[in-house]
Amino acid sequence: MSGRQAIIDISARRIAAMVLRYWYLLRSSWPRILDLIYWPTVQMLMWGFLQTYIGQNAGFFARASGTFIGAVLLWDILFRGQLGFSVSFLEEMWARNLGNLMMSPLKPVEFVAALMIMSLVRLAIGLVPVTLLAMVFFGFNLYGLGFALAAFFANLILTSWAVGIFVSGLVLRNGLGAENMAWTIMFLFLPLTCVYYPVTILPGWLQVAAWALPPTYVFEGMRALLIDHIFRVDLMLESLALNGVLFTAAVLGFLALLRSARRNGSLMQTGE
Amino acid sequence: MDENSVSLGEPAIAVRNLVKSYKSGIAVAGLSFDLSPGSMTGLLGGNGAGKTTTIAMIMGLVAPTSGTVRVLAADMPRQRYRVLHRMNFESPYVEMPMRLTVRQNLTVFGMLYGVDDVAGRIATLATELDLRDLMDRQTGKLSAGQKTRVSLAKALLNQPEVLLLDEPTASLDPDTADWIRTRLERYRHERGATVLLASHNMSEVERMCERVIIMKQGRIEDDGTPATLLARYGRETLEEVFLDVARGRGYASEAAQ
Q1: Residue B41 CA: distances (Å) to CA of B13, B209, B253
Q2: What is the value of ipTM here, to two decimals?
């Protein structure tokens, strides 16, 4: 078995070991679970009530029922997906356990796969109760979007993982000094991907930047579905293509940062 | 030849002209040594001598600036995934997740290292290392001595052929430290494992190791059996030898001239 082949061989058992590690951690700490649910609930309630108020006073928004709640729930998939990935990674830094993992047979691809799975688990714990509350409070059924929701979800989670992978690489290379990136980087996407308003609101030059980001297509697609009742397959395919580029770039960036961390010895120091 | 086999006569660890330099300076400045299969070698040196960096390069955690490291016939770090499941390490400076119980931690690492019967191996180690009463306690709530025993259990989970120890008894009381040394010696004899022990504790090295490599400022200052070194420096303990090396005093024959 060559060195390259050994790197490619993936062990489901090692991935399961890491998922188990994060699951043990999550279930041992109720504040961690509460934290997953608390903020999405607050966000959804705030935007839901705002939309109800505006809808009662403006004809267009009355027709565009659900766009704000839909937007906030989809935004949470993007934001919480990345955070779920990054926080699981940061747990290793906080626990000073990275040395143990990096000197074990765990491969980077297996580590990343486990972080993706945990991102889905954390997202499910946080978002499912909130989507149910949205039905109760505002009569908005996210699952009623059907196949479109699956397309929105797939594109958003791919972007969130790509960002999570890249940020993890930065933290590996630069230590916990780069931790803030994990918490804040996605907020750059909030205005640029036009979560709550159409792309046409942006100045022309900024629209170019917006269309370079995969989530922009999802939020435009959501508005097309909720306002015009049209599912824009073209937007989803464009988003998927951009996600392919973004995800590949993130993986290559992560591997380059990992190599750099091995060179400069930062895997030995997982502090600041 | 089986990919896992080491050629007859090939060292378990072979280090050649190993250099590691950072922007801040040189950590390891041209080390070369071989460790025979089944040997136990002490790596002595003061703070900043380059012991931990050397161990990290042997584990593939740090890439050398130049030179080579081969472990069980695999080039590190390039071929590390061929052999990492046959190696392990223990250091009080690398902690295990504190919120997980001892059993949970050992289960996770047992799976990572590909141990066949994880539950059975954990039960054996719990008995051997006197961990049975601690298995369902959170690792972070254990005393330093208990944590060291848990780290040792992690290090022995996969019954490694190569075991790297970075100050395994640091900050332990003499009784616990002696207990740990006895377990390590027993493991090495039963398994025939190659052990590299970095330590500040001279009596520990004198007791456990048949060979001592003394490092200073990233270089090997001396290398030999404890008895050879004692004779060479005309001293009665390795601690005195260590001080001679650290303070730049020469061999006994040179001092007499």
Answers
A1: 11, 5, 26
A2: 0.87
